[in-house]
Amino acid sequence: MERLDKILSNLGYGSRKEIKAIIKKGLVKIDGEIAKDNSLQVDPEKSQIIINGEEIIYKKYIYLMMNKPAGVVSATFDKYDETIIDLLYPEDAIFEPFPVGRLDKDTVGLLLLTNDGELNHKLISPKYHVDKIYYAKINKEVNEKDVEAFEKGITLDDGYKCMSAKLQVLSSNNEGSEVYVTLQEGKYHQVKRMFESVDKKVVYLKRIEFGGLSLDETLEEGEYRELSEEEIEVLRG
User: Fold this and answer.
1) Which pairing describes strands 224-226 and 33-34: parallel, antiparallel, or unpaired?
2) Domain 63-126+212-236: which CATH class?
3) Going by C-beta distance under 8 Å and a sequence separation of 6 or more, which residues neighbour residue 73?
4) Which of 104, 106, 116, 199 is catalytic?
5) Is 104 a catalytic residue?
6) Distance CA 91, CA 56 (A)
7) Which of 7, 31, 130, 233 is 20 to 30 A from 140 (CA-CA)?
8) Contacts of 12 (CB under 8 A, 6+ apart)
9) Over its length of 237 residues, how does the chain's per-residue pLDDT go in tens digits?
């Protein structure tokens, strides 16, 4: 049970003061009855709430898939750069979602956002072994020795030894390579630092899969959509 004014405010219908005025005008009905008290306790998942003739669809959590563009930071706030939250419509931003893990500023591709803290923890904790798959372009030839090094666990510049990672070579020659990298961690600049450890440089990086979900290729960079119930279940599974 929650206060009626809190429910409506959280859904973006106005401030507590504005909601109080709307209720005072008799524009809000709960299960067919006109609400007269803004502090009325309501179960939003069981009661029918109608505001100004429109039935509201209540949801506690929001789950979004974004095709993150380059130049945007994976944060809820930044003093200098545009954030992924700046790309959201107000009706979605009102839920205060946060990025599930991070993508570097210049990395593009699949980014999940939610306000479901429990699911977020499960998806980013290495102990749950959630796969994150990246497509990368490398400035040099990637060979079998690199594949074996990734499988054994790359040691980064700060001495941290990464968990075993899968490196799949799509194409490789003296001019550069295209690869898939599958990780179950999310260290700072991890993919880039892993390749630096084998004397190579990532020139393009795109996340294409996370937790069994593939990037919706119909999403242009900077676009996003809500996840379906089936997709949410995949992540929870």
Assistant:
1) unpaired
2) alpha beta
3) 81, 82, 83, 84, 105
4) 104
5) yes
6) 13
7) 130
8) 90, 91, 94
9) 889 998 888 887 888 899 999 999 999 999 999 999 999 999 988 999 999 999 988 888 999 999 999 999 999 999 999 999 999 998 899 889 999 999 999 999 999 999 999 999 999 998 899 999 999 999 999 999 999 999 999 999 999 999 999 999 999 999 999 999 999 998 999 999 999 999 999 999 999 999 999 999 999 999 999 999 999 999 998
Give me the amino acid identity at 98. F
* CATH code of domain 131-210: 3.30.70.1560
Strand (E) positions, the chain?
Answer: 2-3, 28-30, 33-34, 41-42, 49-51, 54-55, 63-68, 98-99, 108-114, 132-138, 166-173, 176-183, 202-210, 213-214, 224-226
Which residue matches tokens 């990246």? 134
